[in-house]
Design brief:
single chain, alpha+beta
Amino acid sequence: MEKKTEQTLKRGRLLYEGQWKRVFETNKPDQVLLEFKSEFPQRDRTGARNVKGKPRLASQMAEHIFAYLQSFRIPHHFIARHDESMLLVRRLEMIPVAIVVRNIAAGSLCEKYGISESRELEFPIVELMYRNRLLDYPMVNESHVLAFGVSTPEEIRTMVRIATKTNAVLRSFMERRRMRLADLWLEFGRGNKDVYLADAITPDTMRILDSETGDLYDGSIFRLGIGEFTEQYVSLYKRLTT
């Protein structure tokens, strides 16, 4: 897999800006650049704070994880790491439905259903989320998605299949590093009539627990002020990439 993109690649206009990334067009119509932001959004949405070194660590972790998923033939949009903070990825038409896979009770699942924190679920829970930040990403079912006209039954089946396989692969990946994958958020896009895993898989999109101590690796560490997130990010980077 390439480590550097061609020198002729040029960054163009900003196409999209989210909570932790920016997407830029390039002079190649079928490729875009995904840039990681150093800011980390606050839970109360009053602003954002910078996390030193976050773009470099996030881009390297994402590259490592995508390469690992590639070995299991999981279709994704990653092409190469462009520089310290950006990934070169396939340009897709994003599907406004995300999939959350939960293996361990944490966060909103405990709040909604009264389940104790860190409880191992007997079977992974697969949730469809409507990707609308203004609505706080509400959970939907297949009927909602079809009624809104934002996806098709075949696409939903494909996304669920990719999500469950990705979850199984990453659970094993984490266990070998003495960690537990609590849950992960996955996004998808269309390209040439195929569905691909999109976005990036980093600590911003998954929740991880240390198998021995139960320590949490998750963005909430920083949002809630319960730990030194930069230190945790560096520690997680080392464990995931070695």
